[in-house]
Amino acid sequence: MSLTIAQRIVDDITEDDLEPGTKLASERDMMARFETGRGTLREALRFLEMNGVIRVKAGPHGGPIVSEPDAHDLAGVLGLFLQLKGMPFKALVSAREVLEPELAALAAEAADKDMLADIADSIAGMREFLDDEHNFLAENDRFHVAVAAAAGNQLFALLITSLHLITDGMPLGVSYPPARRNAVLQAHEAVYEAINNGDVEGARWAMRRHMREFRRYIVEKFPMVYERPVRWRDISP
Q1: Are residues 85 and 62 in the same domain?
Q2: Is it the case that residue 61 has pLDDT exceeding 90?
Q3: How far is it, in rounded angstroms, from Cα 108 to Cα 192?
Q4: Residue among 193, 213, 233, 207 at smallest CA distance from 82
Q5: What residue numbers bound the domain in which 154 lies?
Q6: How many domains does the chain have?
Q7: Mean pLDDT value of segment 101-110
Q8: What is the pTM of this model?
Q9: pLDDT of 217 higher than 80
Q10: In a shared domain, residues 43 and 111
Q11: Are residues 96 and 178 in the same domain?
């Protein structure tokens, strides 16, 4: 019953095109509309909150407020299912190795000036943070998300961002010393150059080479991480 109510609330949000930050009906009004009790309604709201659909503000003027689910929420759901399926870390690395070269190729065909600027800006950020691993990796993630977005498919952009969060590896002890960071920067520059030139095959191969280097790095330096099953609690927050 609570799942059905959660689905009806999501229907309301999407059909009425409610923006993030919009306050939903009060608990009393929802109970009357859905003809349900407080416990069942609150269970539905908790489910939606856990999945990033809403946030519940406490206090006399609080209540459920529309939120905006993002890649972190999708990564959480994927991580849960991947752990239950016993999926190894290497399976996700392989998925990226298949998907990302094709996205780079699509980006070379479809990217506009703003998208190209986003990719270039992420590379500039990586250069700036070569001596700062944490911020460097944040810019690294931004690069891959920008390339996926430039491919013109929001689903791919969301999926790639989620896969990055799951394959981050830092919670598992994966590190990226200066030499590795510099190699990643050079790989990104090669991908960007091909995309910027509209070179579809060049972009595909530059990204494929980059993904192969990533896999090789994990296999050689962190073999236990590569082989271990994905765990929900290890996903980058």
Answers
A1: no
A2: no
A3: 9
A4: 233
A5: 72-234
A6: 2
A7: 96
A8: 0.83
A9: yes
A10: no
A11: yes
